[in-house]
UniProtKB/TrEMBL annotation, chain A:
PROSITE patterns linked: ABC_TM1
Family stated for the protein in its record: Belongs to the binding-protein-dependent transport system permease family.
Phylogenetic classification of the source organism: Bacteria, Pseudomonadati, Pseudomonadota, Alphaproteobacteria, Hyphomicrobiales
Protein name per UniProt: Carbohydrate ABC transporter permease
Membrane-spanning ranges: 18-39, 85-109, 121-142, 154-177, 198-220, 259-277
Species of provenance: Aminobacter carboxidus
Domain ABC transmembrane type-1 intervals: 86-278
GO cellular component: plasma membrane
GTP-binding as UniProt keyword: no
From TrEMBL, chain B:
Transmembrane segments: 26-51, 85-108, 120-140, 168-193, 214-239, 274-297
Family statement: Belongs to the binding-protein-dependent transport system permease family.
Cellular location(s): Cell membrane
InterPro entries, alphabetized: ABC_transporter_permease (IPR051393), MetI-like (IPR000515), MetI-like_sf (IPR035906)
GO CC terms, sorted: plasma membrane
Organism, scientific name: Aminobacter carboxidus
GO BP term, example: transmembrane transport
Keywords: Cell membrane, Membrane, Transmembrane, Transmembrane helix, Transport
Lineage, broadest ranks: Bacteria, Pseudomonadati, Pseudomonadota, Alphaproteobacteria, Hyphomicrobiales
ABC transmembrane type-1 domain mapped to chain residues: 82-297
Membrane topology: Multi-pass membrane protein
Protein name per Swiss-Prot or TrEMBL: Glucose/mannose transport system permease protein
PANTHER family found in the cross-reference section: ABC TRANSPORTER PERMEASE PROTEIN
CDD domains: TM_PBP2
Length: 293, 305
């Protein structure tokens, strides 16, 4: 104990510490409550939600709401469940993340190791692009997608997500490569290594952590996107978030709360799993997006 | 680091070297061109639209000057949206910062189980606003949610129907949004606290300062950059807030929870008022740039030295 007694922390009285623990635990309950509500009620028959108590455990456990949410729930006009939309989201996310991450890595490499006059302006403009309200590009984007025949397609959504993700991916890689010793690059250059060789052999092998951060960030953002999905998707390309919203907010028929909750968890599952498996990198991405340098 | 560029003149004599010199720019060019077109070009396009009489489709044949902006600021729905944005952003930023700072300070007291608590506070950030919206929409629903729970527990007179009340519905969106983002603010403050130099604290302790004084007079003032970052991030999220509102109330009851983003969407694509929709988007962008540009400028400018 004596080793840490110097710290502010340990000077608190037992009473203060008790209060601190109580507050921390109460907040943990606050954060967990909605998840608990979703899980518990997704495993109840509908009657039990309507008549019973939302916070109570199921009296009659059932996975029927999950099956319904996945494959038979009425979404829009079709009783197909969320499955096809889950697949749409996957087909949209994977290429969009891959493209924006690859381009971001190359951009970061150029902007830190091959600096040129005005590179700061280029970077500044790309960075500012991260923060624009997407409402401002909705109308022209819809027009471009229409003109190129990509309106309502997954390809169109991939394109949009890849482009509007470029600012962040470039930012991540630029900040990471900034710390990478330029002397190594210079030495390799003198030895005759080409632009791409230096990237492939020297920078890429040590880029593991930032690739993970970027992929997680992009995956989370694109998977969770609603605005672009609801604006640009067509009948065959509706992503999961939009389908979930349609499921929950459809005005017709009985409100199947248990199915809604199961659907919400299904939609949350991929990003939650990513978070649980690699939370450290997820947080690092969040912080890099907020606190630069 | 700018000395790499000084090799350029020498390279002119050698065609292969010239290509090598051009290559970095060629690699960067497509991304930059896409950003220029899809971001800045589109902003200009939308700006033009906002001065045009466009209704269902972009129409550059009729010009109305600032007409759309005048109509916008005379429209009750836009005024509602601005009021809601003011209420939402102030509460959202203040409450998130307060909870975030408090939790970070508490967690920084050598807490057993920090490794369990931290991820619990932060996981909502991984969820889609739509999922958050669904969870809170039903949890705050008087018919099945909190009110119903309290009543089945015997508190018959308990009433909590904010989400159905025009005056109060916007506050339910604050509750859900705070739930989603406050853990993230906690993480920012925690990182800030962990970066405080221990020597300063020790010196203050030797001088006999109490823990409370140390936090109030030394540590919290040191958190100023974190407050600024949190403010910028939260303010820009608040201005963009759209998904959560759609999922929870879809602007209702009536138009009570409209936000600027919702206004833009509804007017452009629902009511075929593209000119006004574009004008509202321009106003949103101006709000965000007012906050972001000085921030980025100071961040980038500080780094150049």
């Amino acid at each position: 104990m004596s080793a840490v007694s110097q710290d502010v922390a340990t000077r608190n009285s037992i009473f203060t510490r008790a209060i601190i623990y109580v507050v921390l635990i109460l907040f943990a309950i606050y954060y967990l409550l909605p998840l608990y509500v979703m899980v518990v009620n997704s495993l109840k028959p509908l009657d039990e939600i309507r008549q019973g108590n939302m916070l109570a455990l199921p009296q009659q456990w059932t996975i029927a709401p999950w099956l319904s949410a996945w494959s038979t729930a009425q979404i829009g006009v079709q009783p197909v469940g969320l499955k096809p939309y889950f697949i749409n989201s996957m087909m949209m996310v994977v290429p969009a993340v891959a493209i924006s991450t690859m381009l971001g890595a190359l951009n970061g490499y150029v902007l830190t190791k091959w600096r040129f006059k005005g590179d700061n302006i280029v970077f500044g403009l790309m960075l500012l692009a991260c923060f624009i309200p997407f409402q401002i590009v909705l109308i022209p984007s819809a027009r471009i997608l229409g003109m190129t025949g990509l309106a309502g397609t997954i390809t169109g959504l991939v394109l949009i997500h890849a482009i509007y993700g470029l600012g962040f991916t470039t930012l991540f890689f630029r900040n990471y490569y900034e710390a990478f010793p330029t002397e190594l690059i210079r030495a390799a250059q003198i030895d005759g290594a080409s632009f791409f060789q230096i990237f492939r052999r020297i920078l890429l092998p040590s880029s593991g952590p930032i690739i993970v951060v970027t992929v997680i960030w992009q995956f989370t953002n694109i998977w969770n996107d609603f605005l672009f999905g609801s604006s640009f998707s067509g009948f065959n390309s509706i992503p999961l978030t939009v389908a979930l919203n349609n499921l929950v907010n459809s005005s017709t028929g009985v409100k199947e709360y248990n199915v809604h909750f199961a659907g919400a968890i299904l939609a949350a599952l991929p990003t939650l799993i990513v978070y649980i498996v690699s939370g450290r990198y997820f947080v690092r991405g969040l912080m890099a997006g907020a606190v630069k340098g | 680091m700018a000395d790499l560029t000084t090799t350029a003149p020498r390279a002119v004599t050698n065609p292969r070297a010239t290509l090598q010199d051009l290559l970095p720019k060629l690699v960067l060019a497509p991304s930059f061109a896409l950003i220029l077109i899809f971001v800045y070009g589109f902003i200009i396009f939308t700006a033009f639209l906002s001065f045009s009489g466009s209704k269902l489709l972009p129409d550059f044949s009729t010009w109305v000057g600032f007409g759309n902006y005048v109509r916008l600021f005379n429209h009750p729905n836009w005024i509602t949206a601005l009021k809601n944005l003011a209420i939402f952003s102030v509460l959202y930023i203040v409450i998130c910062s307060f909870i975030g700072l408090a939790l970070a300070i508490f967690l920084d007291q050598k807490i057993r189980g920090e490794g369990v608590l931290r991820p619990i506070y932060l996981y909502p950030m991984a969820l889609s606003f739509i999922v958050t919206g669904v969870a809170w929409k039903w949890f705050l629903d008087p018919g099945i949610g909190l009110e119903h729970v309290m009543q089945t527990w015997g508190w018959e007179s308990f009433s909590f129907r904010w989400i159905k009340e025009g005056q109060m519905a916007i506050y339910t969106i604050v509750i859900a949004a705070v739930w989603q983002s406050s853990g993230f603010v906690m993480a920012m403050f925690l990182a800030g606290l962990r970066g405080v130099d221990n020597e300063i604290i020790k010196a203050a302790q030797i001088d006999g300062a109490s823990t409370l004084t140390i936090y109030r007079r030394i540590i919290i003032p040191l958190m100023r950059p974190v407050f600024l970052s949190a403010f910028v991030v939260l303010a820009h999220l608040a201005i963009k807030s759209y998904d959560l509102v759609v999922a929870m109330t879809d602007g209702g009851p009536g138009t009570a929870t409209w936000t600027p983003a919702l206004f833009m969407q509804k007017f452009t694509f629902g009511r075929n008022e593209m000119g006004m929709g574009a004008a509202s988007a321009i106003i949103m962008m101006m709000m965000i740039f007012t906050i972001i540009v000085p921030y980025l400028y100071s961040e980038l400018g500080g780094k150049k030295k």
